[in-house]
Amino acid sequence: MNVQPDLEFIRELKTAGGDTLKKCFQCATCSVACPLSTESKPFPRKEMIWASWGLKDQLVTDPDVFLCHQCGDCTEKCPRGAKPGETLGAIRAYAYQQFAWPKGLAKLTTSQKNLPILIGLPAVVILVMWILSALVPGTSGLHIPSVEAFAEHGYQQFFGDWSVMFKWYGKNIFFIALIMGVSALIAIISCWMGVTRMWKAMIANAEIVANYRPSLCQFVGRFLWPSLLETLQHKRFKECKTNSDRVSGHLPLVLAFIGLFLATCWSLIKNDILGLIWPSLHGPLAFFDPIKLIANVSAIAMLYGVWILWKNRRKMEAEGRASNTFYDWFLIWEIAAVGVTGLLAELLRWGGQPLLGYFVYYLHLVTVMMLFLYMPYTKFAHIVYRTVAMCFEKYRTSSFVR
Amino acid sequence: MADEHGATGAVLVVGGGISGLTAALEAAEVGNDVFLVEKSPSLGGRVAQLNKYFPKLCPPSCGLEINFRRIRDNRRIRTYTMTTVQSVTGGPGNYEVKLNVAPRYVNSNCTACGDCAAACPDSMDNEFNFGLDASKAIYLPHPMAFPRRYVVNKEKLSADGAKAITAACKYAAIDLEMKAETLTINVASIVWATGWTPYDAHKMDNLKFGQSPAIITNMMMERLASPSGPTDGKILRPGDNKAISSIGFVQCAGSRDENHLEFCSHICCMATFKQMSYVREQYPDAEIYVFYIDLRTPGKYEKFRASRMADSKAKFIKGKVADVTLEDDGGVTLIAENAVTMEKISQKVDLAVLATGMQPNAALEPMPVALKQDANGFLLSEADKGYYAAGCAKKAADVVTCAQSSTAAALKALQVSRR
Predict the structure, then answer these.
(1) ipTM topping 0.90
(2) Where do the domains of chain B lie, and which CATH numbers do they carry?
(3) Please, are residues B396 and B377 in contact by the beta-carbon 8 Å criterion?
(4) Would you list which residues of chain B are within 8 Å, Cβ to Cβ, of chain A?
(5) Over the stretch A340-378, which tens digit does the pLDDT of each residue have?
(6) Domains of chain A
(7) Composition of chain A by helix, strand, coil, percent to 5
């Protein structure tokens, strides 16, 4: 018999933290230690042997892989140091790559060696846009404002201003929307393609024959909304025993992202829609504006959350309970960078430092773009893939499925 | 015992369990002088605690009795119980060893009539039965104890107790003023047969040992099933003495586990198969559940495994018990994943037996001299020093393998003695 082991699969698992996988001797302690493991379909023991056997198609279509919150209870009790929690994380990293589109961009995000390109790409795009802003009619963005102009407009004229010509749409907003909108659009398309691929593969793998297709309303109402509520309350995360303090880092982070999302939405509505009617609405928000308060509290929650997760990861690695991988650290670095540059830019605005402020703001734009652009391929992708897997878990046991 | 050069050919055997006894007898029966030193008050070690040996299922009294008889008849062996090695100086062929003999408080007048224990008002946990019952503060270690002499635990003896037992003894055998003694002996080589201790089951917090009397260890099961045990050989649930209708064996309890003993103790699967037959003998209808990672019954033991697995009321579940919950009726529920059916199993049983492994004593207590050990505390033989490890001090093993390794150690020790 000619057996061709899939070396690529094993290599990828190893780089993403599954280097201990082969130590597993299938005692099944992990399946009992896991607080999320169910009676009828316990995990992660079966995933460990599938991974050992290289059954990658089985793995990437297994919802349990995505339901794991990597709390580390299994790794703690593992008698062999096989770190099932870390291995499942590595399998997820592999799965994101399998479902990813475009593949080239996804591949780029898997290695620390590509970090210069990963940072360089958005850095160059934003720099080019900044230079291009000089070619577009109106005030050029290609300058450092005076202290007075900086105090009045903040970063709202980073890419210049054409309010003399087009009152109804800010030049700065045009550029920001161009950069971030396109990045976000790519991410949204990529996520959509990824999760539909995953959903179809899971349906096929579970051999589900559906009587009816749920309508969009039914899907949202019965599967998506309950899943989101569960996530918001961190119900499953709180089951973890060993690393219970991860919740105290992850929850602030989630709430911070929601807060910042709302603040950004408001800013968009205020400047782009309401600003058309009342041009006086342009300009930075006052410190005591409720939305600004939400944004600032969120920023601090973000930094606090990522600090806790950073510390935890460090500690787990020092104790040999987790592997040091680019996959895990890249997201922590990214979020920390977004938080630090964002807050620093605001502080520099208050401090009236246009030169330094603009530079930090530029870095902030770069980090935010990175967060958007690489979201579907890095650890950040769990927010969509896990949510969809939770939906699938509910769907599988619903009356839609025969 | 010294020759004209002042050298001695004697062998010191440290440890009086089945391995130490074997090594001492093998060396003595080819004409060598042997000192046999045992820390506890009687010889026989862990084997004396067993109900039956596997695979023949004969009682250990059989093998021990023969060995004790051989020792009694052999003038070349000097045995020292309650004795520990204090220091070792010199070199191979010419070691000077200081022994510390702890006071027994009972002299050789003792006939083991038992009047003292009957009169003694003070009792304590019976260590020989793993605390499953109590013994008096003056006690015979076990019915087969050799030397057959009582011993006093002075810490547990009250002033009234001291008066009572002294008065009860017709032979003036009790001497509560006895002091520890130091002896110096000269030997050529040393056999270390320091044995093992069952791994402390309290350390596996998920298995809840100590939180319910329905959770016992495999060595406790030996005592429960033994005619000389706390229940006269009836397997009853400790605590409420309930006859059992179901029993769960938890294999690899703390074994093959980096967080506990990382090695396989080699005997626990066989011990469980053996204990299945104790249960079946007394309870023909009892349900038996065995939770395992792998069933390891090497070589000729395979047949023993096959016969136990043919039991139609015994279920074998491939999956390690990783959690235990205590039930209101005194039973316990064992939780594992069955790796074959991919289902999580919660099995309620009346009694749970943790198959704990063997931890070498050298890992638990300081040795009198620096001895080479592996990562788990098992001793390595050092031929250049004339030190030879034997039995379970060397590796986790069954009785047969211990006897073999002890004979081997004796042979090597003799070669130093006769150099």
Answers:
(1) no
(2) 11-102+180-197+359-417 (3.50.50.60), 115-168 (no CATH), 200-356 (3.50.50.60)
(3) no
(4) 206, 252, 256-260, 293-294, 318-323, 335-339, 342-344, 346
(5) 999 999 999 999 999 999 999 999 999 999 999 999 999
(6) 7-99 (1.10.1060.10), 106-239+325-396 (no CATH)
(7) 70, 0, 30
